[in-house]
TrEMBL record:
GO terms for cellular component: U4/U6 x U5 tri-snRNP complex. The gene is LOC100757280. Required for axonemal dynein assembly and ciliary motility in ciliated organs, including Kupffer's vesicle, during embryogenesis. Facilitates the onset of robust cilia motility during development. InterPro entries: WD40/YVTN_repeat-like_dom_sf, WD40_PAC1, WD40_repeat_CS, WD40_repeat_dom_sf, WD40_rpt. Interacts with IFT46. It comes from Cricetulus griseus (Chinese hamster). It is found in: Cytoplasm, Cytoskeleton, Flagellum axoneme; Cytoplasm, Cytoskeleton, Flagellum basal body. This is Dynein assembly factor with WD repeat domains 1. The lineage of its organism: Eukaryota, Metazoa, Chordata, Craniata, Vertebrata. Keywords: Cell projection, Cilium, Cytoplasm, Cytoskeleton, Flagellum, Repeat, WD repeat. WD repeats lie at residues 73-114, 115-157, 158-199, 200-241, 242-283, 284-325, 326-367, 368-400. It comes from the Eukaryota.
Length: 400
């Protein structure tokens, strides 16, 4: 990101380094950036060179990291529903059927806060990353609450949905939180004043996933009505309806540069859509059962899919070809995610294990064992050197 002043106003500009790899020639890259970007003068070139080298070091980190069990947290008196980390990975949250959300310190495994006030299951939880100073909780009591991550104080209770809230997300600017509900609508709420900004209506069945693009201008909702809708986040206007799946949607998200939308479905396929035109550009096939989760890597070059058939697959987002198949789990895989470096995948399964995989070869590098019931949630921290797993055995495990 470049910060500069123009007419007394502070402005920002971003340089896309999605192609950067540990082997990139830094001097050549900086010369190319200088040619394309007049803001980077000769006197600034060395500073840019150092920043790029630091990014390269980050990409090289934790390549062969082996995880060990650091702590078991028997957090809640009833099963967990979800686990989420802040961007730094310094703390994480757990939602539960016991109507609370708990905030944990990752380094020590200590409980920092219990967020109490919901009158039913706390199902959807999120930090306002990258800031991480606020937490949103969505509940079966039809409300969403906004909390201070530091103090555990409740800022607002958002009321208006007429059925359970099952998904939520902050916009990247952290000015709005979006909630998706079994009442077939999604709502956007103003974080400052606690007011409803807009209601997104048009789906014919429950909304079970939603996500913003990286600019925060658009939001997508995935529904049991087999469709995904792209909305203008400021006006609530429908931009596109993505029609093509023939069963419920399980996930829907943008890639990093917002050019593509990936949708996963119970119809055993994932579809790739052009985000500008709303047209389907590819259908990713190969699984023998429902797709339960799907994701892009951080640069948007790779796609990973997890299925009830017990396997996961990695596809190239450009060629749409399957690169590798991850085989080894003995039950359905409900969760999949890339590490930030993009060379490892993490999967969580009903076979009570989580696994770490090599993205290119599909080899299983490690099995994280010890849970006594299915794992429904797992995540890397931003550095890729900590893993959190949440299980139906009412416990959460920190692996480092």
């Amino acid at each position: 990101m470049l910060e500069y002043e123009k007419g007394g106003e502070l402005k920002t500009k971003s340089i896309d380094l999605l192609e950067l790899s540990p082997s990139t020639d830094v001097n050549t890259l900086v010369e190319e950036i200088q040619k394309a970007e007049p803001l980077i003068t000769v006197s600034r070139a060395q500073q840019v060179r150092l920043l790029v080298q630091r990014l390269q070091e980050k990409l090289r980190q934790h390549c062969d990291h082996s995880f060990y069990l650091f702590k078991v947290l028997r957090a809640h008196i009833l099963p967990l529903t979800n686990v989420a980390l802040n961007k730094a990975g310094s703390c994480f949250i757990t939602g539960s059927y016991d109507r609370t959300c708990k905030v944990w310190d990752t380094a020590s495994g200590e409980e920092l806060h219990t967020l109490e006030g919901h009158r039913n299951v706390v199902y959807a939880i999120a930090f306002n990353n990258p800031y991480g100073d606020k937490i949103a909780t969505g509940s079966f009591d039809k409300t969403c609450k906004l909390w201070s991550a530091e103090s555990g104080k409740c800022y607002h209770t958002f009321r208006g949905h007429t059925a359970e809230i099952v998904c939520l997300s902050f916009n990247p600017q952290s000015t709005v939180v979006a909630t998706g509900s079994m009442d077939t609508t999604a709502k956007l709420w103003d974080i400052q004043n606690g007011e409803e900004v807009v209601t997104l209506t048009g789906h014919l069945a429950e909304i079970i996933s939603l996500s913003f693009d990286t600019s925060g201008d658009r939001i997508i909702t995935g529904s049991f009505d087999h469709t995904v809708v792209v909305w203008d986040a400021s006006t609530g206007r429908k931009v596109h309806t993505l029609i093509g799946h023939c069963a419920e949607i399980s996930s829907a998200l943008f890639n990093w540069d917002c050019s593509l939308i990936l949708t996963g479905s119970m119809d055993k396929t994932c579809m790739l859509w052009d985000a500008t035109s709303g047209k389907c550009v590819a259908t990713l096939t190969g699984h023998d059962d429902e797709i339960l989760d799907s994701c892009f890597d951080y640069t948007g070059k790779l796609i990973a899919t997890a299925s009830a058939d017990g396997t996961a697959r990695v596809y190239d987002a450009t060629t749409r070809k399957c690169i590798t198949k991850l085989e080894g789990h003995e039950g359905e895989i409900s969760k999949i995610s890339f590490n930030p470096q993009g060379n490892r995948l993490l999967t969580g399964s009903s076979d009570k294990t989580a696994r770490i995989w090599d993205v290119q070869t599909g080899q299983c590098l490690q099995v994280l064992e010890g849970h006594t019931d299915e794992i429904f949630s797992c995540a890397f921290n931003y550095n890729g050197n900590i893993v959190i797993t949440g299980s139906k055995d009412n416990s959460c495990r920190i692996w480092r």
